[in-house]
Model the fold of this input.
Amino acid sequence: MGKQVSVKERLFARYVAEGRTQAESARMAGYTSNPDKKGSELVKKAEVVDLINQRGAELAEDRAVSLREHLDTLAALRDDARDAGQYSSAIQAEHHRGKASRLYIEQQAVVRADADSPSVILERLNGLLSRDPVATQD
Done:
């Protein structure tokens, strides 16, 4: 970053990244006179925007659930359910572990059936019967 960022600007960026409004963030950072206007001005400064984005990325990374943690939690729930004799819950937890691990592939098939009218079906059947030598031997 080219310009120095003040302590107040750093605080403002942190509060905005945490999800507070610009005015609330400006007020909490120590801007007492017209925090609405100051918040609008601060988000136009490239250095402050960079800090907001950086802090936002850090927060997102901290809050992210890793696959390993998720699978471990499901395994613990499965084991607790099994130990309690709740086999349906244990199976469901294990199933969800498999889904999270991509062991299962969900497939969808679209079946399109064009339903013909009964008269069209009868006409086709009569046409088939008239060509079938076995069907005409009565």
Observations:
- Residues 46-63 form the longest helix (18 residues).
- The chain has seven helices and no strands.
- The chain has a mean pLDDT of 85.
- Residues 7-63 form one domain.
